[in-house]
Amino acid sequence: MTATLPADGRGAQWVRARDGRAETPTKPGAPAVPEPPQPRELRADCARCVGLCCVAPAFAASADFALDKPAGQPCPNLRPDSRCGIHDRLRERGFPGCTVFDCFGAGQRVTQDTFGGRNWRDDPATAAAMFAAFAVARPLHELLWYLTEALALTPAGALRDDLSAAAEQTRRLAAADPDDLRAVDVDAHRAQVNPLLSRASERARNGHGGPDHRGAMLLGADLRQAYLVGANLRGACLVGADLRGVELRAADVTGADLRGADLRGADLRGTLFLHQSQLDAAARGDRTTRLPAALHHPGHWSGLALTPARRPDRAHPRPGRRGR
User: How far apart, in whole angstroms, are the C-alpha atoms of residue 30 and residue 290?
Assistant: First the structure.
């Protein structure tokens, strides 16, 4: 069963161009959204890691993983050289969850900096400590990625100063020695950072008139005729959602679940806090899916139709459940 979003009285903002793409109903004077840089320290570098993401976390047999794996036990596909033996066919072998995981650079941080290049295979005594450190460093690096994105969106002023201070604090925490790193209360730190990220998002979305669908349950929703420019989609469940031809400029997709979503013909240029792993989780996209310069079309999108799907002649919107 699918759901659609109501027009909310937007009228002309629902009108589609003849080529099937969404029109651009930006309010006069709406600010352009810059594309943030992506620091190298926050990009996963598997060549400088010892396969921590394939050992430290646990996962259960599901649609994302083909088998059960306890925490601290190497995945059976992990080779002795800390490389995945089925990396080029993970989806076909039942491991799509691996294709969308990103450590945000925490793997090489723990391997090279925290533990000075040691390998848990060669030095088993360090294994438990390395895995525990990775469990803390990874969410810290994710927060640092969001803070870096927010800084690029925010002009000089008090909010930018607060974001910069939070980024520096997060960087210091992630660079701590093993004992101090394991003692970090990630949840408490996240609770301090999230309000700043929300304020940066609100400022970047200001003037676009987007709807608030934060935390909305939009499982399988038909959103092809929804106005989502500048929308708040933080934490929204968009699993299996139909977003064909939708413009998401200045929409905040922090933590939005795009697994199985259809992004063919969608325009995601200027989407706020969009990460590559979210695109990798989407089931469909094509060459008409427009992305920020820093991101790329996932390989499993190739071979799909290169023209937007035909729109229905008439839509019958029904309200979807809204999150808090």
Answer: 20
Q: What are phi and psi of 272, to 5 degrees?
A: -85, 130
Q: Cα–chain-centroid distance for residue 5?
A: 22
Q: Residues 45, 50, 51, 53: what is their CA dihedral angle, to the nearest 10 degrees? A: -80
Other C-beta atoms closer than 10 Å to the C-beta of 294 total 11
DSSP codes, 43-108: S--GGGS-SGGGTSS-B-SSSS-SS-B-TTS--TTB-TTS-BTTGGGTTTTT-HHHHT---TTHHH
Q: Identify residue 253 by its one-letter amino acid code.
A: V
Q: What is the pTM of this model?
A: 0.81
Write the pLDDT tens digit of every residue in 268-315: 999 999 999 999 999 899 999 999 999 999 989 965 443 343 333 333
Q: Which residues have CB under 8 Å from 201's CB, separation 6+?
A: 150, 232, 234, 252, 254, 272, 273
Pick the closest to residue 22 from 269, 246, 288 (CA basis).
Answer: 246
In order, the DSSP letters of 132-154 are HHHHHHHHHHHHHHHHHHHHHH-
Please say whether the beta carbons of 110 and 176 come within 8 A.
no
What span, in angstroms and rounded, lies between the C-alpha atoms of 52 and 121?
11
